């Protein structure tokens, strides 16, 4: 950790706890700041706040009192999920109190190099691919996962050495709170419409994502999805050295798909069919990861071996295993139609049974019809089951079954599948009709599969 004095003896408010808030408070405390922690959850139900109190920090819980700002803070470090419309933040902005997220604090506290990854879809998978690629090389530099992937950067920098590389997944919420943050390599997987309830408009969402490169220079590398016209246009406004990846080859593209193979600057890397995870979206993710690998000097042999062995991230087209000749995939993270469309692109529909359905947000599934055409089977569950059944009929799906819950869905999917088929959970819907989150839904799917296998 770098011995920075940037925060020493300054009064700093950490707004909101959860994992990133706790990590930021501890790091700032260690850097010599006078830390006040404010969290909405009452102290009696807040073990994290109790721990920070015992460490000597000032703790205010049970709400966000605006008069707390009268204590004269020089800085606020906020939990990324707290919107800027929160009253205490609105008053802080009026008082010209700087507001950062913990990624910026962590950046100031380490000499380790950053690779920053953001985008709408594919962030976690691409981040994890890059992490495995870097650690598979013979380099003495260690890659560490950090950021929105579940490892608060303020925690990671406590043990990071100067020569380490922090492979950091970054959300739009986090990027709104950076100041000097400057990754050596930055990557934007793609940009689609998302989080409009937080950002207010698509342009503000894109602006937040594009902040990733704001401090980069020509000595730094920015990797962008060349399949998207929007990113090609944005590339004209950065000072960073730009590389493009795309599923089609042009003179401008550095990493691309050609005749079923992945290339980097006319250099053959591997066959796309050798990737350990299926789907056109994972071809894009792999091309992005290959770009990072080549920039960091990793050999083609290491790239091929690592990406061939990569079996995915939990709940993201995750390969669970092959049982009785059936390949099982968990894509519970597919909480919208687009994500399911991308997952389906990696399978032969005539040998695939899809389990889908969940929270009804009022939309239909007409857009999904071309992608489920001639599926061997579609097993629908949850609030959207009836709508999915109608879409399946239109798509000429061979077996169409409506079920009440995951147990029934898995049993029916198993019954209509056979050796050499695949069973894919890719719901195209949020999980909240039956589960608190998509992780619990995916875990339930795996549990039910294992129960059938163990019979």
TrEMBL record:
It comes from Candidatus Vagococcus giribetii. Belongs to the MurCDEF family. This is UDP-N-acetylmuramoylalanine--D-glutamate ligase. The lineage of its organism: Bacteria, Bacillati, Bacillota, Bacilli, Lactobacillales. Its main location: cytoplasm. GO terms for molecular function: UDP-N-acetylmuramoylalanine-D-glutamate ligase activity. Its EC number is 6.3.2.9. Pfam families: Mur_ligase_C, Mur_ligase_M, MurD-like_N. ATP binds at residues 119-125. Cell wall formation. Catalyzes the addition of glutamate to the nucleotide precursor UDP-N-acetylmuramoyl-L-alanine (UMA). The gene is murD. PROSITE patterns: FOLYLPOLYGLU_SYNT_1 (PS01011). HAMAP family: MurD (MF_00639). It catalyses: UDP-N-acetyl-alpha-D-muramoyl-L-alanine + D-glutamate + ATP = UDP-N-acetyl-alpha-D-muramoyl-L-alanyl-D-glutamate + ADP + phosphate + H(+). InterPro entries: Folylpolyglutamate_synth_CS, Mur-like_cat_sf, Mur_ligase_C, Mur_ligase_C_dom_sf, Mur_ligase_cen, MurD. Keywords: ATP-binding, Cell cycle, Cell division, Cell shape, Cell wall biogenesis/degradation, Cytoplasm, Ligase, Nucleotide-binding, Peptidoglycan synthesis, Signal.
């Amino acid at each position: 950790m770098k011995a920075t004095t940037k925060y020493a003896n300054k009064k700093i408010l950490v707004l909101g706890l959860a994992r990133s808030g706790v990590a930021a408070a501890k790091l700032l405390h260690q850097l010599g700041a006078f830390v006040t922690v404010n969290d909405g959850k009452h102290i009696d139900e807040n073990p994290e706040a109790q721990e920070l109190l015992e460490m000597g920090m000032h703790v205010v819980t049970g709400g966000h009192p605006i008069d707390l700002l009268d204590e004269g803070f020089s800085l606020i470090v906020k939990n990324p999920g707290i919107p800027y419309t929160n009253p205490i933040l609105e008053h802080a902005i009026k008082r010209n109190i700087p507001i950062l997220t913990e990624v910026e604090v962590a950046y100031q506290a380490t000499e380790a190099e950053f690779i920053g990854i953001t985008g709408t879809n594919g962030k976690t998978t691409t981040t994890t691919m890059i992490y495995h690629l870097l650690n598979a090389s013979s380099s003495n530099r260690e890659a560490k996962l950090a950021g929105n992937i579940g490892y608060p950067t303020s925690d990671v920098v406590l043990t990071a050495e100067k020569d380490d590389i922090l492979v950091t997944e970054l959300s739009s919420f986090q990027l709104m709170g950076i100041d000097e943050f400057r990754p050596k390599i930055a990557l934007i997987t793609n940009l689609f419409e998302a989080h409009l309830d937080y950002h207010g408009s698509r342009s503000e969402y894109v602006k937040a994502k594009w902040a990733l490169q704001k401090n980069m220079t020509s000595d730094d590398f920015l990797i962008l999805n060349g399949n998207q016209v929007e990113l090609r246009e944005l590339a004209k406004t950065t000072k960073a050295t730009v590389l493009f990846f795309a599923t089609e080859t042009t003179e401008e593209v550095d990493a691309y798909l050609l005749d079923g193979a992945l290339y980097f600057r006319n250099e053959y890397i591997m066959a796309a069919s050798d990737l350990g995870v299926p789907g056109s979206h994972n071809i894009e993710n792999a091309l992005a990861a290959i770009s990072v690998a080549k920039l960091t000097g990793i050999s083609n042999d290491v790239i091929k071996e690592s990406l061939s062995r990569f079996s995915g991230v939990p709940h993201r087209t995750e390969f669970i295993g092959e049982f009785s000749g059936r390949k099982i995939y968990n894509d519970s993270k597919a909480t919208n139609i687009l994500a399911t469309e991308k997952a389906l692109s990696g399978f032969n529909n005539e040998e695939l049974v899809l389990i889908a359905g969940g929270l009804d947000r009022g939309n239909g599934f007409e857009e999904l019809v071309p992608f489920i055409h001639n599926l061997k089977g579609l097993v629908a569950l949850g609030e959207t089951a009836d709508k999915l059944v109608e879409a399946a009929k239109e798509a000429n799906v061979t077996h169409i079954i409506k079920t009440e819950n995951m147990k029934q869905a898995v049993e029916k999917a198993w019954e209509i599948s056979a050796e050499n088929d695949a069973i894919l959970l890719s719901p195209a819907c949020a999980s909240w009709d039956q589960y608190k989150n998509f992780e619990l839904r995916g875990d339930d799917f795996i549990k039910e599969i294992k129960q059938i296998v163990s019979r």
